[in-house]
Amino acid sequence: xxxxxMMRIRITPELKDQLGTVAKExxxxxxxxxxxxxxxxxxxxxxxxxxxxxxxxxxxxEASVKLLSRMVIPDELRKGD
Length: 81
What we know:
Shape: elongated
Number of strands: 0
Radius of gyration: 21 Å
Order of helices and strands: HHH
Distance between the termini: 50 Å
Structural class: mainly alpha
Largest sheet: none
Strand content: under 5%
């Protein structure tokens, strides 16, 4: 990110510790984690974690629909289940 504008902010020690913990879990620097969090908050970027979470949610929803259809639709009317 060299060449990008620098910005100094004040945050609580607790928030800094939380950010540090999350940064470590994501193998990022503290600065990279803050940038990622801000971009995500502002809707400028969808990270790989967000995509994985959405894919998992779709899988769960598909399984739920399949289960509910078995409960509601009689066997003889079901196609290619």
